[in-house]
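Researcher: Go.
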Amino acid sequence: MTPREAVVVPEQRDALTELVAANVGAGKRWSTRAFAEIAVDPDTGWAPSKSLVAKIAAGQSYDITPQLVSALAEGLGLPREVVAAAAHFQVIGYTESELAGEAPATVLHKIGERPASASKSRSVAEGWAAEE
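Model: Structure:
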């Protein structure tokens, strides 16, 4: 097979939306208002509006920017690379070989998925499962 013939379809999902929706909204860890107050990009001071946070949690369309990723990471109390990996899942997706990184494995764990393949991701997720 030539490189042109070897088409790899990346796994894609709304992981960033799922991270926010799991923690923000009625009956969750934070209300949209409370989350909007703590989700502040530490480098620029930018923060999403309450209405943007509500759109994200509801799974509506929104633009993903570096400032949004940083602000959501701060609000969720997660490393920026993990939230950036969630954004990568949502916008671009990951090929199976790319899922071997720790950040994608962390995203999958946070949104309740267990990787079916990619040995490093699987071993990281299994280690977390053993700790629970």
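Model: The two ends are 44 Å apart (CA to CA).
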